[in-house]
Amino acid sequence: MIRSLILGLLLFSPLALADAPVRTDPPRQAAIASANAYATDAGLEVLAKGGNAFDAAIAVSATLGLVEPESSGLGGGGFLLLHTAKDGRDVFVDARERAPMAATRDMFLDAQGNANRKLSVDGALAAGIPGTPAALQHLASRYGRLPLAQSLAPAIRLARTGWKFGPKNAAMLGYRRDAIAGNAAAAALFLRNGQVPAQGTLMRNEDYARTLELIARQGADGFYRGAYAKRMVAGVRKAGGIWTERDLAEYRVVEREPIRIRHRGFEIITAPPPSSGGVALATILNVLDGYDYVKLDRVARSHVVVESMRRAYRDRAIYLGDPDFVQVPVALLVGKDYAAGLRAGINTERATPSDMLPGVTVPPSRPDTTHFSIIDAQGNLAAVTQTVNLPYGNSLVVAGTGFLLNNEMDDFSVKPGVPNAFGLVGEDANAIAPGKRPLSSMTPTFLLGNDRVAVLGTPGGSRIVTMVLLGLFELMDGKGAQATADAPRFHHQYLPDQLSAEPEAFSAGEIAALKARGHDVAIGDRSWGNMQVVLWNRATGEVQAGTDGRWKGVGKGSSTEESAIYR
Predict the structure, then answer these.
(1) What burial class does residue 450 get, using C-beta atoms within 10 Å of its C-beta: 0-12 exposed, 13-18 middle, 19+ buried?
(2) How confident is the model at residue 72 (pLDDT cuts 50, 70, 90)?
(3) In the structure, what pLDDT confidence band is assigned to residue 251 with cuts at 50, 70 and 90?
(4) Would you kindly state where each structural domain of the chain is located, as residue ranges?
(5) Nearest Cα to Cα of residue 97 among 458, 465, 457, 435
(6) Nearest-CA neighbor of 71 among 510, 387, 448?
(7) Nearest to 403, CA basis, from 65, 63, 129, 59
(8) Which of the two residues, 495 and 519, has the higher pLDDT score?
């Protein structure tokens, strides 16, 4: 057993482990960090029944879709970064939503050619074809140990017995109450007498339980084909959408090769397109390779990090999209020579105005989307980021299904240079096309070093990539899982040309110094993100789980030794 575990880790990443000590201690226990305690405990329950990290991921995913409907669910999609200890394989599972086949390039433009943002955010036209149900079956059939029904059982049970409506549910529903109220099926599930439920209200969802039971019996076909698919298509089209039964029947997840980055003696394994995250991380870290930034004072270090962010997000806007539809120059963008050229344009004493970086022709994010991180006692890893895009998706529930649909069509570039809901601009590479997957910022990531393996990710819209970047810095500096999840955050995304930061990210003196370098510093009145981190010390076998402290008492990071399994 130990021999096979050592072999698996050696295969995990030959580049990173060439000068690393051979691991002698496997993980002492499994660990899960997710954005909701119900979901973490569901995953731990499945592990206790003999499941592996991938079975646990099914339980966590399905439970989050129930108790955190503002962030993800069966009507959405996501990215899954997996490592299988047995054969040392890393794989990226793309379960991103797809545009319906009737979608057109200009479907969200009015007669004058102006973008109609309401159509791409609220209602049936905003919904892409969901990928999460297909991902659940893919995990069970390719990577899990347990039958799908067993991994879905905790979420099915909880849907019927009920869960308590929490502070995050309430905060996000307050933002979307009017849109939810406009759809009778959604209002029946999520509102009480037309209002946001009081915290602590017991919520049940029989329709969600029945949908999961259908998937448990028939697999993804139960969702994407037959009577259930007909019901969804009829409901979407009645509400003004363009789905067809063909759209659902043809949906497939895609396995892709992750992006690998070497930096400071670590290897980072992360998301390829249609995520923008891995390419942006590679660009930023490769640019930073040219500076001894670890030894710089905080202002000088933040300056070069921000200038690297600015250039990576500029490239995101121009080059990145669905690799099945456009030729994405990944090899160029993640190359050291390309980064050296970008670095040559950085003034270490002065900010570069974004309008001086050519290419694009021409607002803050909310903690929608969700992430969870898992490591099991065999060393299997799962980093999963899943979403319905904006809080509570497109605010539409097809009667009888029990879940909200996504508004991922807004993640396409509806018109060159026009920002989406997260202030991100794009060009033709991310234009709408039938069957295409919209570009995403979701960045599930592994970090591998001589003595530690970490799994991390976060929601946060356009800020996801920079939050993961700052989390990687913390881990490379030797910080623990909880300290990494709690670390202060700052962000720059090229346009708008602004350095945004959490309230405690910089001191008054640091803010003044950054402004003196030409940065437009905007300190927010609230924090952002919801990072989930698990960490394995390969020398001792110790594992840690850290859940973002920004949502007190909602998320949960726990190991199998310290948690009471939810029953």
Answers:
(1) middle
(2) very high
(3) very high
(4) 19-80+106-252+397-430
(5) 435
(6) 387
(7) 65
(8) 519
Specify whether the CB–CB gap between 411 and 438 falls below 8 A. Answer: yes
- Burial state string for 158-176 with b = 16 or more CB within 10 A and e = fewer than 16: bbeeebebbebbbbbbebb
**DSSP secondary structure, 141-205, as one string:** HHT-SS-HHHHHHHHHHHHHH-EE--HHHHHHHHHHHHHHHTSHHHHHHH-BTTBPPPTT-EE--
Average pLDDT over residues 524-542: 95
Contacts of 234 (CB under 8 A, 6+ apart): none
Q: Say how far apart CA 248 and CA 326 lie, in whole Å.
A: 23
Distance CA 196, CA 504 (A): 30
CB 395 within 8 A of CB 89: no
Beta-strand relationship, 521-523 and 499-501 = parallel
Sheet holding 31-34, edge to edge: 254-256, 89-95, 77-84, 381-387, 370-375, 31-34, 556-559
d(CA 397, CA 335): 44
Q: What is the dihedral of CA 284, 290, 296, 301, to 10 degrees?
A: -20
On whether the CB atoms of residues 235 and 399 are closer than 8 A, the answer is: yes
Question: What 3-state class would DSSP assign to 255?
Answer: strand
CA separation for the pair 136, 210 (Å, rounded): 16
> Is 272 within 8 Å of 92 (Cβ atoms)?
yes
Q: Can you tell me whether residue 109 is helix, strand or coil?
A: strand
Strand partners, 163: 203
What is the share, in percent, of the chain residues with pLDDT greater than 90? 87
Candidates 425, 427, 391, 390; CA nearest to 409 is 390
Which residues are designated catalytic?
Answer: 369
What ranges make up the beta strands (E) of 305-380?
370-375
Contact 26, 35 (CB under 8 A): no
User: In this model, does residue 367 exceed pLDDT 50?
Assistant: no
Q: What is the 3-state secondary structure (H, E, C) of 127-152?
A: CCECCHHHHHHHHHHHCCCCCHHHHH
Q: How many CB atoms are closer than 10 A to CB 147?
A: 13
Residue 221: its H or E element? helix 221-224
Burial class of 194 by CB neighbour count within 10 A (0 to 12, 13 to 18, 19+): exposed
Of 13-17, 38-42, 249-253, minimum mean pLDDT range? 13-17
Task: Report the pLDDT averaged over residues 378-395.
Answer: 97
Q: Is the Cα dihedral 106, 109, 112, 113 positive or negative?
A: negative
Structure confidence by residue, pLDDT tens digits, 453-464: 999 999 999 999
Query: Do residues 162 and 155 make contact, with C-beta atoms less than 8 angstroms apart?
Result: no
pLDDT at 421: 58
Structure tokens at 75: 């009507």
